Amino acid sequence: MIIDIKHLYKDYHLGNITVPALKDVSFSVAEGEYLAIMGPSGSGKSTLMNIMGLLDKPTAGEYELAGENTLLLNEKQLAAMRNQKIGFVFQRFHLLPSDTALQNVMLPLTYAGIPAAKRKEMASEALQKVGLSDRMDFKPNQLSGGQSQRVAIARAIVTKPAILFADEPTGSLDSENGAQIMELFRMLHEEGVTIVMITHEREIAEHAERILYIYDGKISENERGVKDA
Ligand code: ADP
Ligand code: MG
To answer: pTM here?
Structure first.
């Protein structure tokens, strides 16, 4: 299993109020699997994604990623793991506005310490893969939403990560551009990349091989089971 999560809890504290965002979440993801996690707004999807992506820590529970007990890693080890093993795609793209598409895609390679000429070659390849060879020198405000998300996907895959996390990747796009993103994910899945995609839209979730449902911080294999819980 590339991901193994056991009895995960996450509480947020606001003043003296505790907000339980994840409640006893357990599941695994096999290497190469394409999983969707579907749930309504406020159900804990982004909280779970941030923990899976090593951007946040759980309040309690166990999280193993690629054989590592992530709760034992220090900040430096977590940053290295994020850079080497994980690619991220967010709803709002998170591109650097003053950088070109090529520079945005090169960025994770800079962190990885790859020499400049090699960075450029790898970033061009990734942009070619998402069909944007002709937009490499464009800045984010010169790109459409769909193109921006494809740049973000190129940035996510340029380090050849084992796992791709996507939080509402089509949430800011129209259905035609959303379909292009789903086509790219299908291609990456065929290449063996593990994908965990979070969405509140059924037709997007259905592109995955397996769907888990999250409702009020609890996860289930079965949609009714969650709603009745
Ligand atoms: P989703 O992504 O499914 O919309 P979130 O994970 O963003 O859900 O939020 C789950 C719950 O946790 C919500 O009740 C939300 O209000 C709460 N929450 C999220 N982030 C914070 C935070 N930083 N501080 C306090 N509460 C939060
Ligand atoms: Mg969210």
So the answer is: 0.93
